[in-house]
């Protein structure tokens, strides 16, 4: 995977942020995300609603901001569950503008 510039300082990195600018999630935020994934699984099973693709089965569900923080959303804003692939696709489309 090609390196991309850090969202904060522009240094090339394998992630959206360089190691110096990685976000540190609080225990409360990790718990909130885990609860969102658990609630989604309880209601929908291991099913990703898809992002720019059809809904599909997925074991690797993650909690994602409905309106990304990078696009002006709030850290405490509402979450949705997507698989890692859809979450990455959404992130990459926002980074490209």
Task: Give structural notes.
- InterPro entries: HNH_5, HNH_nuc.
- With 97 residues, the protein is of the alpha+beta class.
- It has helices at residues 27-44, 84-96; strands spanning 4-5, 12-13, 47-48, 56-57, 61-65, 79-83.
- The protein has a two-stranded antiparallel sheet. A two-stranded antiparallel ribbon has the order 3-4.
- The radius of gyration is 14 Å and the shape is globular.
- The relative contact order is 0.15.
Topology:
Elements (H helix, E strand, L loop, with lengths): L3 E2 L6 E2 L13 H18 L2 E2 L7 E2 L3 E5 L13 E5 H13 L1
Antiparallel strand pairs: 1-2, 3-4, 5-6
Q: Please, how many domains?
A: 1
Low-confidence stretches: none
Helix content: 25-40%
Question: Please, what is the average pLDDT?
Answer: 88
Helical segment tally? 2
What's the SSE pattern? EEHEEEEH
Distance between the termini: 19 Å
- Strand percentage, roughly? 15-25%
The shape, in one word, is: globular
> Based on helices, strands and strand pairing, what is the structural class?
alpha+beta
Structural Rg: 14 Å
What's the number of extended β-strand segments?
6
Order of strands, widest sheet: 1-2
For the sheet with most strands, the description reads: 2 strands, antiparallel
InterPro entries: HNH_5, HNH_nuc
Protein name: HNH endonuclease 5 domain-containing protein
Organism: Kribbella turkmenica
